[in-house]
Design goal:
This is Aminotransferase class I/II-fold pyridoxal phosphate-dependent enzyme. The protein has about 425 residues and is α/β, with parallel strands linked by helices. It has 17 helices and 14 strands. It folds into 2 domains: about 5-55 and about 300-415, Aspartate Aminotransferase, domain 1; about 60-300, Type I PLP-dependent aspartate aminotransferase-like (Major domain) (Aspartate Aminotransferase, domain 2, 3-Layer(aba) Sandwich), CATH 3.40.640. It has helices at about 5-10, 20, 60-75, 90-100, 115-125, 140-145, 160-180, 200-205, 230-235, 265-270, 275, 285-300, 300-320, 340-355, 385-400, 405-410, 410-415, and strands spanning about 30, 40, 45-50, 105-110, 130-135, 155, 180-185, 210-215, 245, 255-260, 335-340, 355-360, 360, 370-375. It has a 7-stranded mixed beta sheet, sandwiched between helices. It has a 4-stranded mixed beta sheet with strand order 1-2-3-12. Strands 11-14-13 form a 3-stranded antiparallel beta sheet, with helices on one face. Strand 5, helix 6 and strand 6 form a beta-alpha-beta unit. The radius of gyration is 22 Å and the shape is globular.
Length: about 425
C-alpha cells in the first residue's frame, strides 16, 4: 500500500510545478495600498486591471464610513450562531427583501460565501433521481456542486444551443426512467471569456423541454441590465430564471452572496442549504455594508455609466490595435496571445516592471496549450489616462512577443522546467 502523500511528492499538478518560479509574483502576488485603479506591487505603482471592483465602491468614503460604523456598533462576531439557531436578525431580512426586489424575484436568501453557497444550492436542489445539464466551461464552484450530485449529469459544449438541445433530450429520456426532474445551470457572464450565457435561447427551450434554470450571475449583477439587475434583465428573461445567484464579491465589493427565486423555493432552500444551516450567520457589519452598497447600486446609475464608458474605451482601443478579445459581451476583457508558459512569464514581468501594468495571466490548463490570456477588469475608478497607458503598453509587449524577445528571455525558465 502506498503512502497517501506519494502523489503530492511526485506530482505538484499543472500549476503547482511552476511554484518555485511563479509564487509571489505570477501567482499569490501581493498588491498593496487602498483598492483603486492604481496600487503598489513590489514597491512600484501599477495600474490594476485584476480587481473585480466593477463599480469602484471598495474605497469610496461613504462605504468605508458605513463599514467602520457597523464594525464599531456590532463588532465582527455578531450575530453568533447559524441563521436557524441564533444568527437571524431584522437586518438580514431587510437585505434579503431589498435584494429580491432589486432582481425582480419574490424572495431571496443570504449566503455566507458565493463559492460555498453555489455548491450547497446545487446539492439542495437535486436528488439522486434528478439530472443536471451544465456548460462545460462552468465556474469551479458549479463543477464542485455538480460533483456532489449522485445522479446523472450531462455537459454541453460552451454556449452551444444545439448541444444544449441534444443534452436536454438525453436528460429528458433519463428523467423518464428515474422519475426525476432536470436542472440546467448556466453562468450569466462567463468570467474568463466575458461571454454572456445564452439565456434567452435557453429559456426558449422551455417550450420543448421541462427543466428548471439556475443562473450564476456573479459578473452580471450590478454591471448589466437597465437597472444593473444582471444578465437576465439585459436579455429580457429575468422572470424565466428559476433560481438566480449573485455574489457580493464583485460589484458590491464585499463578502457574501444571495440566491433569489419564488417564495416557496426560497422557503425550501433555507431549510435545506447545509452550508447555511450548519455555518455561522453572515456577520452584521457585512449585512449593514451590503445594504449601503445595494442602495448605491439603485440610486447612482452614474457608477454603471462610468464603468461602461471605461469598458468601451478599453475594448475598442484594443480592437482598433488588432488585439483578439474573443467574443466578450461584458466588462470582462480577455486578450488572447500566442505563446508558451515561459513566454507568458517574461511578458507579464515586462508589463509590470517596465510599463506599470498589473493584470491577471491565465495559461494552460485553464486555456489550451500555446495560448496566453491576459484578463483585464475595467472598473468605474479607472481613468482615460490609465486606458491610454495600457493601450501603449500592450502594443509594445505584442511586438516583443512576435519578434521572439520573450522566447529568448524565457529560455532559461523553460529549460529549468523541462519544457
Amino acid at each position: 500500500m502506498r503512502d497517501l502523500f506519494d502523489k503530492i511528492y511526485k506530482d505538484k499538478g499543472p500549476l503547482g510545478k511552476w511554484a518555485d518560479k511563479a509564487e509571489g509574483y505570477f501567482v499569490f502576488p501581493k498588491l498593496e495600498g487602498p483598492i483603486s485603479n492604481r496600487m503598489r506591487f513590489q514597491g512600484r505603482e501599477v495600474i490594476t486591471w485584476s480587481i473585480n471592483d466593477y463599480l469602484g465602491l471598495a474605497n469610496k468614503e461613504e462605504i468605508r464610513r458605513v463599514d467602520a460604523e457597523a464594525a464599531a456598533a456590532y463588532g465582527s462576531a455578531y450575530p453568533m450562531g447559524a441563521r436557524m439557531m441564533s444568527g437571524h436578525t431584522d437586518l438580514h431580512e431587510q437585505l434579503q427583501d431589498e435584494l429580491a426586489e432589486f432582481v425582480d424575484k419574490e424572495a431571496s436568501y443570504l449566503l455566507n460565501f458565493g463559492y460555498q453557497g453555489m455548491v450547497s444550492t446545487i446539492d439542495a436542489l437535486v436528488s439522486k433521481d434528478d439530472i443536471i445539464v451544465y456548460d462545460v466551461d462552468a465556474h469551479a464552484c458549479i463543477i464542485d456542486g455538480v460533483r456532489l450530485h449522485q445522479g446523472q449529469r450531462y455537459t454541453y459544449r460552451h454556449n452551444d444551443i444545439e448541444s444544449i438541445d441534444k443534452n436536454l433530450m438525453r436528460a429528458t429520456k433519463m428523467a423518464e426512467k428515474t422519475g426525476g426532474g432536470i436542472l440546467l445551470i448556466s453562468e450569466g457572464v462567463f468570467g474568463m471569456r466575458g461571454e454572456q450565457g445564452r439565456l434567452k435561447e435557453i429559456v426558449a427551450l422551455k417550450e420543448k423541454y421541462n427543466f428548471r434554470l439556475f443562473v450564476d450571475d456573479a459578473h452580471g449583477f450590478g454591471t448589466l441590465g437597465a437597472t444593473g439587475a444582471g444578465t437576465g434583465e439585459e436579455q429580457g428573461v429575468q422572470d424565466q430564471i428559476d433560481v438566480y445567484f449573485a455574489t457580493f464579491a464583485k460589484s458590491m465589493a464585499s463578502t457574501g452572496a444571495f440566491i433569489a427565486a419564488d417564495q416557496e423555493i426560497i422557503d425550501y432552500l433555507k431549510y435545506n442549504l447545509r452550508s447555511q444551516m450548519f455555518a455561522k450567520s453572515l456577520q452584521m457589519q457585512l449585512v449593514v455594508g451590503a445594504l449601503k452598497r445595494l442602495d448605491m447600486l439603485r440610486t447612482m446609475p452614474e457608477l454603471k455609466a462610468k464603468l461602461w464608458q471605461n469598458v468601451n474605451a478599453l475594448q475598442n482601443g484594443l480592437k482598433e490595435r488588432g488585439f483578439d478579445l474573443g467574443t466578450t459581451q461584458s466588462c470582462v476583457t480577455p486578450v488572447y496571445l500566442k505563446g508558451s508558459i515561459p513566454e507568458a512569464m517574461a511578458l507579464v514581468k515586462d508589463l509590470r516592471e517596465n510599463h506599470g501594468i498589473f493584470c491577471s495571466i491565465v495559461v494552460y490548463p485553464v486555456i489550451p496549450k500555446g495560448l496566453i490570456l491576459l484578463r483585464l477588469i475595467p472598473t468605474a475608478s479607472h481613468t482615460m489616462e490609465d486606458i491610454q497607458e495600457t493601450l501603449i503598453a500592450f502594443s509594445a509587449i505584442r511586438e516583443r512577443l512576435e519578434n521572439g524577445t520573450y522566447k529568448r528571455m524565457s529560455a532559461a525558465v523553460a529549460a529549468a522546467m523541462g519544457e
